[in-house]
Amino acid sequence: QVHLVESGGGLVQAGGSLRLTCSASERSGSMAWFRQAPGKEREFVAAIRLRDGTTDYIDSAKGRFTISRDIAKKTMYLQMNSLKPEDTAVYYCAASASLLLVGAISNYDYWGQGTQVTVSS
Predict the structure, then answer these.
(1) pLDDT (average), residues 71-86
(2) What percent of the chain has pLDDT over 90?
(3) pLDDT in tens, 33-66
(4) Closest CA to 118 of 58, 35, 57, 5
(5) C-beta of residue 30 within 8 angstroms of C-beta of residue 46
(6) How far apart are CA 68 and CA 56, in angstroms?
(7) List of residues 6+ apart from 26 with CB closer than 8 A
(8) According to the 3-state scheme, what is the secondary structure of 23-59?
């Protein structure tokens, strides 16, 4: 069982930055960030393979968001720059024993409770 705790969400103006942190109780094969806006389905944002740091992003995040990890601290980060109002959502941390970098919710066995990110225009 992997316990995940997110932090770092908040209210920011468009164009601003936030850094989300996900602290894990155990190491896993891959970790990811998802987000869910009101009335919408949960969507994949970014993923990272812990072993070698390989990453993958949703197109709208490329060039603005950076996912990273600190293996020793069992922590994953999401640096979000140039934030837009459409980035407003609850952001969730997820972990999987698999080494695959996929955006499918079903690939991830463990989830955090989420952290709210609100971007004002």
Answers:
(1) 97
(2) 94
(3) 999 999 999 999 999 999 999 999 999 999 999 9
(4) 35
(5) no
(6) 11
(7) 1, 2, 3, 74
(8) EECCCCCEEEEEEECCCCCCEEEEEEECCCCCEEECH
